[in-house]
Amino acid sequence: MPLPIDKYLAFGSLLTAIKSGWELSRMITKKLEDIELNKLVTNASRSLRSAFNSGCISHYEYYKYKELIAFAEAQEDVRQLLNIRNKLARLRASSDA
Q: Which residues contact 81 (CB under 8 A, 6 or more apart)?
């Protein structure tokens, strides 16, 4: 019959394994979110440069949107980045029409 201490050690080992698996899963999820955020920032920045180069927005608007993109990136606000990208797309579409 195993000693009670052995049962506690086995249980502690099991908890450590579960915690390690959970931590690894969390790290992978965070890394994937960071990659997605970087893609959105790059896409929004390209849309901003494209809108500025095509004359859809002024210098003031360019710097305003550039600051909004930087703030959204610092806050890791994906929704704000998507909103900025969509606004720029609408501006370009309205100026092309």
A: 37, 40, 41, 44, 69, 72, 73
Mean pLDDT of 47-59: 90
By three-state DSSP, how is residue 67 classified?
A: helix
Report the Cα 72 to chain-centroid distance in Å: 9
| Domain assignments of the chain as residue spans, ordered by start | 4-96
Let me know: does 75 contact 35? Beta carbons within 8 Å.
no
Residue 54, CB-side half-sphere exposure with 13 Å CA sphere: 15
Report pLDDT for 84: 92
pLDDT in tens, 74-87: 998 899 999 999 99
